[in-house]
Amino acid sequence: MGNWFKSGSPWIWMTSGAVSLSLIAVLGLLLLIASRGLSYFWPNSIYEWELVDYNGKKTTLIGEIYDTEFVPTERLESAGHKFKQHPGETVKRYLIKTGNRERVGLDFRWVLETDMVSRTTPTEIAMFERSKNGNFYGYPIAVVEEGKKLENENLEKSLREHISRAVDLSHQALSLQKSDIGSINYQLEKLRLKGKKYELNNELTVERQQEFQQQTNKLNEDYKLLEKQFFALKTQAARDAVLVKDMSGDIVKLPMDSILDVSFFNRMGFLDKVGHWFTGVGRFVSDDPREANTEGGVFPAIFGTVFMVMLMAVIVTPFGVIAAVYLHEYAKKSTVTKMIRIAVINLAGVPSIVYGVFGLGFFVYMLGGSLDQLFYPEALPTPTFGSPGVIWSALTLAILTLPVVIVSTEEGLSRIPSSVRQGSLALGATKAETLWRIILPMASPAIMTGLILAVARAAGEVAPLMLVGVVKLAPTLPIDMNFPFIHLERKFMHLGFHIYDVGFQSPNVEAARPLVYATSFLLVSVIVTLNLTAIGVRNHLREKYRSLEH
Question: What are the TM regions of this chain, as residue ranges (predicted)?
Answer without folding.
Answer: 298-327, 339-365, 385-407, 438-459, 515-537
